[in-house]
Design a protein that fits this description.
It is built from 14 helices and 13 strands. By secondary structure, it is of the alpha+beta class. A hairpin with an 8-residue loop joins strand 1 and strand 2.
């Protein structure tokens, strides 16, 4: 359905935008308000220009509704979907298709074993689970599944080295290195903000230790790393002199986080990305070969499909500079996709007023040592989206490899990682705010997580603020990585985070259990078909491997009576995604 923005804006492109929108509407054929599967997703009527976004020209409703189209609709070649016959993954497409089709296979746009595996985000994020409607007998899909998880049929497969012909460590071609169940996007705006706040605390703890070490050259200074009640071990700083330009960082006792930068990365199963914008721009490239200018730069056709400045309406003409309409649309439309994803309703079941019996069993079994019930935000939390700039050039193959991975190295060339840029910008904003709450830092687009204004039903309800305007986020996670032993370990080369740092194969980010009842199959690769299987497999296939950090909790679970086991599972089943109103 075509939608006009609420008001024209005084900028050089306004007249063109509105004339084109009118032309599209008047030329449409078919049922009024209906869009066809072959219609373009990126259109003038729904595009968001980042410079106008920065000036407040759009309401949050307009931004998230545009983002919903970019999330839910299927991109087509005219949008820039897919790569050219000789694009970066053409060799992989040839290897994948050559035994299944009569031609070379490079003319087939999809790959599946390393991205280019869908046409829409909705293709893999489409279910809020099932329920029995009131007054009925049979289960059906809940309304409002856009942004949810999916069945095993939609798992992500990734092997940047496929078909492994040049990898001497492989004795036979391996189709996939990574298998991942699509995570639900519900409530992710809250999650990002918690992680950034935690990152700020950890950065300050290291900075304070460095300051003290500079005052005491040669003396090791140890700081305990803890944020929002989550312990990340200890870091020891030694300064050779009072300038401390090259501090010696002993990170041997740091745990559950990248020792390189102490950034909490709350997204993807191994904690790969720190911000939703980083994830969205990487996902567009990996899944669709839709290359926004913040990934590949202005006028660069890095995937050789004949389109440039993708995620803009005009992805054919050359843009003059960063202020050009195509560039601002590409940047703004990625921001809109990010806003939609982050503002989806949190998966919280309304409180019945009494604690279910299984919650006490869950706590007594030790599950809460990692699956912490809630983390609390700063007062009046904002979902902060950093305004982006175009990249200088196509991604550096020596950093990213010849074939992209989802999220990995997506910020490797950033001058300042987005999470740290957010922390620093918010410090400046808070210092200038003189006690005011909910201040959006310069260079960011912000939406109030508690009171975002009028949004469509699938973004409601929001979490209720406390009296001090903080928000308790019941995500049941500590946003920390933990060693879960060899059974669940990745057996291929380590996955890398957005800064291009290896993540240990046995470490996994603590799964957020809010909504867990509705996002099976469970565990990172979907191997667990029931919640009980998922719990037991935290310590080997049968729960008796005695490896990793979950041994005690798994042993406690297996020692429970049948009544208590059933109560614990019933409690987890109560953590469901509410249907959209």
């Amino acid at each position: 359905m075509y939608r006009f923005l609420s008001k024209p804006r005084s900028n050089p492109h306004t007249a063109t935008r509105w004339l084109v929108a009118v032309a599209v509407l008047t030329a449409a054929v078919g049922i009024p308000g209906m869009a066809r599967a072959q219609d373009r997703v990126v259109t003038t009527a729904v595009s968001i220009e980042q410079d106008q976004l920065d000036q407040g020209a759009y309401t949050p409703d307009e931004v998230v509704q545009s983002g919903r189209q970019f999330f839910a609709a299927a991109y087509i070649p005219e949008d820039g979907h897919g790569e050219g016959d000789t694009g970066p993954r053409s060799g992989q497409r040839l290897a994948f298709w050559k035994s299944a089709v009569s031609g070379p296979g490079t003319d087939i746009p999809f790959l599946r074993v390393n991205g280019i595996d869908s046409q829409a985000c909705f293709g893999c994020h489409n279910s809020a689970g099932t329920y029995v409607p009131e007054g009925e007998l049979y289960r059906t899909q809940k309304p409002g599944g856009v942004g949810g998880s999916a069945d095993f049929a939609s798992v992500l497969l990734s092997n940047s080295q496929f078909p492994d012909d040049n990898n001497p460590s492989e004795t036979a071609p391996r189709y996939t290195h990574i298998v991942r169940v699509p995570p639900k996007a519900f409530g992710t705006g809250y999650v990002q903000e918690l992680a950034i706040e935690m990152t700020g605390v950890l950065q300050q703890q290291e900075a304070d230790a460095t300051t003290l070490a500079a005052q005491n050259p040669g003396q090791p200074i140890t700081a305990h790393l803890e944020a929002k009640g989550v312990k990340f071990g200890d870091i020891t700083i030694t300064c050779p002199d009072t300038s401390c330009n090259s501090p010696i960082r002993d990170v041997s006792k740091v745990e559950g986080i990248s020792t390189f930068d102490l950034i909490v990365r709350p997204f993807q199963h191994k904690g790969v990305t720190a911000t939703l914008r980083s994830f969205c721009k990487s996902a567009l490239d990996f899944h669709f070969s839709m290359q926004a200018v913040e990934v590949v730069g202005i006028n660069n056709d890095c995937d050789l499909d004949g389109y440039r400045n993708e995620m803009a309406v005009d992805d054919v003409s050359f843009a003059a500079n960063e202020q050009s309409l195509q560039v601002q649309q590409s940047l703004g439309n990625v921001a809109a996709l990010t806003a939609f994803t982050g503002m989806l309703r949190p998966p919280v079941t309304p409180n019945s007023g009494s604690e279910p019996p299984g919650k006490a069993v869950f706590r007594a079994a030790g599950c809460e040592s990692c699956h912490m019930e809630k983390l609390t935000t700063r007062p009046r939390p904002q979902f902060r989206i950093q305004l982006a700039h175009p990249a200088d050039q196509c991604p550096n193959a020596s950093i990213y490899g010849s074939n992209p991975g989802l999220g990995s190295a997506s910020e490797a060339e950033a001058t300042t990682p987005p999470a740290l840029a957010t922390v620093n910008a918010q410090k400046t904003a808070d210092a200038n705010a003189k006690g005011a709450l909910g201040v959006c830092p310069s260079g960011f687009y912000c939406i109030d997580l508690t009171n975002p204004g009028s949004l469509p039903p699938e973004f409601e309800p929001r979490l209720t603020a406390n009296l001090d305007e903080t928000v308790d986020v019941p995500l049941y996670s500590d946003l920390k990585r933990h060693d879960l032993g060899t059974y669940l370990a990745q057996v291929t080369p380590p996955q890398r985070d957005d800064a291009n740092h290896d993540i240990p194969n046995q470490e996994w980010l603590t799964t957020k259990l809010w909504g867990v009842a509705d996002n099976g199959p469970w565990l990172h690769d979907g191997r667990a078909r029931t919640l009980e299987e998922a719990i037991i497999m935290h310590d080997g296939k049968d729960g008796n491997a005695n490896e990793g950090e979950a041994v005690t909790a798994v042993n406690n679970f297996q020692a429970l009576s049948t009544t208590d086991r059933d109560a614990l599972i019933a409690f987890l089943e109560s953590l469901s995604v509410p249907p959209a109103p």
